[in-house]
Each structure stands twice: as C-alpha cells, then as structure tokens.
C-alpha cells in the first residue's frame, strides 16, 4: 500500500464555512476517483497547541495510483476552488505502508 498524508495550516481569517465547504468537497474524492483505497480527512481536534489545522490521509495500491489521483482533473478542481484560497501552508509525505 502507498500512503499519502498532508497537513494543512489555514490562512488567518479562514471561516468555518470555508473549512466545511473544503471538507465536503474532499469527502467526494473516494467516490469519484477509483484509485483511492482508503480515505480519511478532518479538522484538528483542538487538544494541543501548534498542531496543523486539518489532515488528509489517502491510501493507494501503489505509487502510480497516487500519481493518477494527484493529477486527476476533478481532484485539481477541488484544490483550485476550495483549498487554495484558504491554505497558508502545508506539509505532505508519501510512503509505503505495509
């Protein structure tokens, strides 16, 4: 299995409505993109200071499945419409999870 993890920090002034819209749009990915084997995303629970604001984890059979997801026009449209306007920064990693 090939795992993609990304953590987001929102821009100052990002509203809960913007985050909810981003979350709803991201939640459509598993039904639209057949390469996704498992998917989880959500806001930080708010228990500790200095955490990221939001996390996304997606699993794929192999790196080529991840690349198909990464470059998919539907996925890219969600990034452009819902994510890019609110992202201050992010960090991501992909690794083989067995």
Question: What does this protein structure show overall?
Answer:
The chain has 98 residues and is an alpha+beta fold. The chain has a single domain (2-96), classed as Alpha-Beta Plaits (2-Layer Sandwich). The protein has four helices and four strands. It has a four-stranded antiparallel sheet. The longest helix has 12 residues, at 16-27. The model has no long low-confidence stretch (mean pLDDT 97).
Quick one: CATH class? Alpha Beta
Helicity range of the residues? 25-40%
The overall pLDDT, averaged over residues, is: 97
SSE order, one letter for each helix or strand: EHHEEHHE
Tally of individual domains: 1
The number of helices is 4
Count of extended strands: 4
The structural class is alpha+beta
Question: In CATH terms, what is the fold-level topology?
Answer: Alpha-Beta Plaits
Strand order of the largest sheet: 2-3-1-4
Residue ranges: pLDDT <50 for 5 or more in a row?
A: none
Could you state the oligomeric state of the chains shown?
Answer: single chain
Task: Specify Rg, calculated over alpha carbons.
Answer: 13 Å
CATH architecture, please?
2-Layer Sandwich
Sheet having the most strands? 4 strands, antiparallel
The percent range for strand residues is 25-35%
Determine the N-to-C terminus distance. 6 Å
Apparent shape: globular
